[in-house]
Amino acid sequence: MNYVKCIKNEPYIQLPDQPVQEAPLFGLTVGKVYKIIPDHTSEKHHLVRVIDESFGEPGSDQGYLYPADYFEPFLPPRNGQSSVPVTLYLDDYLKGVLYAEAVAADKSVSALVRDWLYDRLDLPAY
Predict the structure, then answer these.
(1) N or C: the chain end with fewer CB closer than 10 Å?
(2) How far apart are CA 34 and CA 4, in angstroms?
(3) Helix, coil or strand: residue 50
(4) In the predicted model, is pLDDT for residue 6 greater than 90?
């Protein structure tokens, strides 16, 4: 499993002599999908390491640990499930480059973009 979907974002650490935190965790949004960084040691403690919304901040390059029960597996659709259309708005330069690359590869622009996504995003095969 490479991706998980957030199902909970409540604070889970309470320090003694500190007020109870009620605001949701900064880096997690319920319903969003996050990439997992494999961490076998953390998994033994029922934690999962994810790249959260704070990626790019100092110290975030290793991801952050959260309770595993804050997530559910995010799996590819089964046969028969519908896809969600995506619309891209491109400037004339990028549109021209994509068209030229598609012609050179003897593909449609959408096939070229789809192949590029699968090659670069490490998407699971289904």
Answers:
(1) C
(2) 5
(3) strand
(4) yes
